[in-house]
Amino acid sequence: MAWLVTGGAGYIGAHVVRAFGEAGIDTVVLDDVSSGHESFVPAEVPLVRGTILDGALLQDIFATHEISGVMHIAGFKYAGVSVQRPLHTYEQNVTGTATLLAAMADAGVGRIVFSSSAAVYGTPDVDLVTEDTQKAPESPYGESKLIGEWLLRDQGVATGLRHTSLRYFNVVGSGYPDVYDTSPHNLFPLVFDALLAGRTPRINGDDYPTPDGTCVRDYLHVADLAHSHVVAARRLESGDELESAYNLGSGDGASVGEIMSTVAEVTGIDFTPEIAPRRAGDPARIVASGELAARDLDWKMRYTLRQMVESAWSARHAASNAD
Question: Where is the NAD-dependent epimerase/dehydratase domain (predicted)?
Fold first, then answer.
């Protein structure tokens, strides 16, 4: 038996696939490689190139492979871009998830772990976000993730689907030297790309009500994230009861200014970030409690901020040298 990992050729998905392999659990990857990389998928793992919108392909995967559960990570993940491309976002994230759930039901596959997002909360007015914090997404992306959670909930009522959703905050770092974040919108790759190109990284706003004036975010190491995915899958297979959703958060957070200082120390590239205007909609602080996930999914912060930066830089620098 194997778990189907949608989006398994992406930065997060590839870490999850490798964590499954290290735990002795077989996987099959479905990915259209639009933002992922075939090289991220281990050679021994079957890779099906395609999209979750292709119901016939999904049916073929379930008929060809013995799938015991689905790790649903595929999706359009760019919150800012989703505002300009709402229909594309809903098609990929809502219609795609519905198509996947329909194929699962037809094949009798009754377990799923869903890659959700902190974007379901929008701009929370609390110091520490919990799973019960009001859901107020501010982008089509955040809305699509919340709808995805509703789809799982409703399918659970209708068919007995066993499910949980993991709400990510800011995922960084690398667990392997050949897998790294290639998103054109995430902070770490933006900073690294600027440094490698001889440009000065920038900070959007330094006048927030935070200790150093820059936004505070919850940064999580991708290897810790992947580990809790494996635990969630195992617990669903064991018939354990899980919460419908978990925040994967640190309970603490770090500022963008701290990230910049740590990057300068790790890379040995001395720079003073350029200060750009605030971006509309950027809250001063978003930090989440990970208590429920710690209780149920062996969630913990095993890496310091410096180790997160070191692992991310090492993988990205190695990739740039290989190009």
Answer: 3-249
- Among the listed residues 11, 78, 90, 141, the single catalytic one is 141
Measured CA to CA, the distance from residue 186 to residue 272 in angstroms comes to: 19
Q: Measuring CA to CA, how many Å separate 220 from each of 167, 223, 247? A: 12, 9, 11
84: Cβ contacts below 8 Å, ≥ 6 apart: none
Rg (CA), the chain: 19
CATH superfamily, with its number, for domain 173-217+252-288+302-322: UDP-galactose 4-epimerase, domain 1 (3.90.25.10)
| Structure tokens, 48 | 């099906």
CA 120 – CA 124 distance, rounded (Å): 10
CA separation for the pair 199, 117 (Å, rounded): 31
Task: Give ranges for CATH 3.90.25.10 in the chain.
Answer: 173-217+252-288+302-322
Q: Give the integer Cα–Cα distance in Å for 135 and 215.
A: 21
- Whether 121 is a known active-site residue: answer no
In this structure, the number of other CB atoms found within 10 A of the CB of residue 22 comes to 12
Q: Which pLDDT does position 80 carry in this prediction? A: 84
Q: Give the C-alpha separation, 272 to 82, whole Å.
A: 31
Predicted confidence at residue 78, as pLDDT, reads 87
Nearest to 95 by CA among 53, 151, 137: 53
| Position 216 pLDDT exceeds 90 | yes
Q: What is the CATH number of domain 2-171+219-248?
A: 3.40.50.720
The CA distance from 312 to 86, in Å, is 31
Other residues' Cβ atoms within 10 Å of the Cβ of residue 184: 10
